[in-house]
Amino acid sequence: MDKIKEEKIRKAVDFRIKEFADNLEKRYIKELSDPNGVINSKKNNVFIETLGDEFIFNSAFCRSFDSSFGNVLEALANDIAEVSFDVITENISSYLLPQQTQHIDYIMADYEKHAKTPEISDYSNFDAFIPKNTSSYTKSHVTDNHFYNPATKEHYIIELKAGGDLDNKKAKSEKMELLKEYFILKNELVGTDETVRIFFATAYNKNGEDNEWKQERVRQFFAEDELLIGKNYWNFVCDDEDGFNIIYDQYKISCQHILESLEKIKSMYFLGD
Q: How far apart are CA 174 and CA 222, in angstroms?
């Protein structure tokens, strides 16, 4: 990776992590006098309060951290992708035909019954008759990441999860929504030579980076080429095999912003207790 690109990626990481840390402080300062605030509600639970300040703080903070930090990673991915791709933040809007919806139902039923191993060709080779008037089939869909590569004329639609530990119902739902997004965007691109690819991605490998990602409930509905797990996701976003290493190296530096904010929050809530 060239130095200019690396520097842009490092700046993006530091900016998002510092922004997250600053927002943490603002949130907990605002809740300081609120008995229903995240930390105070824990302090008011006598069974938790008895276990001490450290336990109160950790139990209050960890749950909210997981949910809010996921939004940070999604925003960070969009920031980093701008270095290599066109990042599209608007909803995917076009139309979805009944034949396409029916085809989605067919292939999902096969996956659910283990009658078929998922392949990209299951939907990429499907063509539907397009009527002159499609106004009654108009659809709009939100997606986590939508990148466009002008060099290859490919659109990438990505649904991002933290570790990807989904049950069967949720895994099926994720694939169905991605297929809807695929066909909606494909319909929008009729008459062009642009193509669409869909991915299920995770911000980290729950089994450890460089280890096999063991999530058979997701693999039941997704082809191997549709998965971007952990470091492979970040390498894809950076369009570089060193992407994850650079991001993680900078994160280890920038996470000091979070640690400093946590200490300030602790002192506000527990100093003098």
A: 10
Residue 214 and residue 118 share a domain? yes
229 and 95 within one domain: yes
Identify the bridge partners of residue 141 per DSSP, sorted by sequence position. 92
Residue 12 three-state SS: helix
Please count the other Cβ atoms lying within 10 Å of the Cβ belonging to residue 110: 14
In a domain, 233, yes or no: yes
Q: Which residue range forms the structural domain that includes residue 49?
A: 3-68+254-270
Domain count, the chain: 2
**pLDDT-based confidence at residue 78 (cuts at 50, 70, 90):** very high
Are 200 and 176 contained in the same domain? yes
Q: 260 and 179 in one domain?
A: no
Mean of the pLDDT values across residues 106-130? 96
Residues 6+ apart with CB under 8 A from 25: 261, 264, 265
CB atoms within 10 A of CB 47: 6
pTM, two decimal places: 0.90
202-220: b or e for each residue (b if 16 or more CB lie within 10 Å)? Answer: bbbbbeeeeeebebeebbb
